[in-house]
User: Which sequence fits this backbone?
C-alpha cells in the first residue's frame, strides 16, 4: 500500500541517498570520478532545496510503511505544481509514483517540468494525463487538466 507523510529532519539521509540514486546517471561516464560525482550530487541537492519555494510541501512516499520515494509539490491557485517526484530505482514500475501523485493531485490541474532528454519521465507523466505544453529543447513543461469531481 502506498501512502505519504511529511518529510522531517530524520529523513535527510534518505532524501540525499534517493537523490543521488535517481540522478547518478547525470554525473557518470568519462571524467566523473567518485569523489567529484558525490560532491556534485551534494551541491545539486543542496541547491534545489535552497531554491525551493517556502510553501512547497516535501513528502516521503511509503510503500507498505517503508520509505520508497519523495514528492515535492505546491499549490498555485487551482493548480498543483509538482516540483520533484523520485522513486527509488528498485521500486519503479510498481505503481508507487502513480499512486503518490494521484493522492496529491486529486482532481486539480497540475504542471511539471522535466528534462527534455528524460524520455521515461515524459512517458510516465503522459500516461497520467499530462500533455506537453512547451518544449525548449532543455526543459519540457507538461500540464494535466483538472478532473471532474466524482461522488
Assistant:
Amino acid at each position: 500500500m502506498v501512502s505519504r507523510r511529511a518529510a522531517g529532519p530524520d529523513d535527510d539521509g534518505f532524501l540525499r541517498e534517493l537523490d543521488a540514486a535517481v540522478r547518478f546517471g547525470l554525473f557518470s561516464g568519462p571524467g566523473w570520478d567518485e569523489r567529484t560525482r558525490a560532491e556534485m550530487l551534494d551541491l545539486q541537492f543542496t541547491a534545489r532545496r535552497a531554491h525551493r519555494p517556502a510553501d512547497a510541501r516535501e513528502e516521503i512516499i511509503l510503500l507498505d510503511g517503508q520509505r520508497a520515494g519523495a514528492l515535492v509539490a505546491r499549490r498555485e491557485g487551482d493548480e498543483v505544481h509538482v516540483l520533484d517526484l523520485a522513486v527509488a530505482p528498485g521500486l519503479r514500475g510498481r505503481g508507487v509514483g502513480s499512486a503518490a501523485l494521484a493522492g496529491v493531485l486529486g482532481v486539480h490541474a497540475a504542471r511539471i517540468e522535466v528534462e527534455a532528454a528524460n524520455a521515461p519521465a515524459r512517458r510516465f507523466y503522459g500516461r497520467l494525463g499530462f500533455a506537453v505544453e512547451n518544449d525548449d529543447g532543455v526543459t519540457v513543461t507538461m500540464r494535466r487538466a483538472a478532473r471532474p469531481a466524482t461522488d
Remarks:
- Residues 34-50 form the longest helix (17 residues).
- Residues 73 and 83 are 5 Å apart (CA to CA).
- The domain at 2-144 is CATH 3.40.630.30 (Aminopeptidase).
